[in-house]
Write a structure and sequence with these properties.
The chain has 319 residues and is mainly alpha-helical. The chain has helices spanning 2-31, 52-64, 69-72, 74-85, 90-106, 109-113, 120-143, 150-165, 171-184, 193-208, 214-223, 225-240, 253-259, 264-284, 287-307, 312-317; strands spanning 33-34, 46-47.
Amino acid sequence: MLLANNIKTLLISGFITLIFLKLLIPVLRKHLIDKPNKRSSHISPKPTAGGISFVIVATFFMALEGNYNPIISLPLSAVGLFDDIKNIKKRDRYIVQVSTVTLLLSTSLFSQNIIINYPFYLKILFFNFFIVVFTGLINFINFMDGLDGLVCGSMIIVITSGSILISNSYWPLVGSLIAFLLFNWSPSKLFMGDVGSTYLGGVLTGLILLSNSWITAFKIFFISAPLILDALICIPRRFLNSQSIFEAHKSHLYQRLHQSGWSHASVSSLYIVFTLILSLNIIFLNIKIASVFLIAELFIAIWLDQKKALPFVDSINKK
């Protein structure tokens, strides 16, 4: 019965998202067009902010399921929408991110059931640590949204895994993302924009904070590793090459693979398959076996970085 209800919820949210997108795309084509620039991976103007579709539909249905965490992430989406329309200062964006993560932490089961058992000084330490970690997570998901279907396809697997391991109230988002992927897969008809990518980072944060143990929370991070590690590893590499870690760039592995001649679909499929392999191992086997596969994926990524992708230094110097 529970499985049937989850599938029903997924199908309904997906169908409504499809209808929403059919109505939304003509409006976005008139008012919100992403024009290619030197940091873009696309060559023709396309409508952006399509993430509005799954933000509204999924948040509504998740609230009906009694999950109000996605509502807390709506300010991220609103700021993302304004940023899609007109650039917002990084400082103002980060203030909203910190506020959102603080609220998610303060109201989370993770804080109430796990962190509360630690001494006061450790509570403060963990709280500040998690603000850094989760604001980083929000930005990493945003950074990775640069190729058709990459973030959307990967997040379908991550959120599905969280729905199985932590809370079945996230199935509406899975359905909405599947519907959105039909329009976002290469060659895409629209982009999710910051309105969608930052929201997904916030929702993922809320999902992790519903965990009832450290190990469960870690499993979701583990499954998200292909997205997180690409963005994370790029930070020290840029720093060591005297590049600003806060400026937009095209130095991530996924971007350099595309610059070397890989298609959007090929790069996105690689990340989705890597994420799926980790998810299946975590859900059906155990984290030790999953770790072996993650190490193998890291070696493959290193080989791709050194042998197939545009060299890191060249991506910095490329104008």
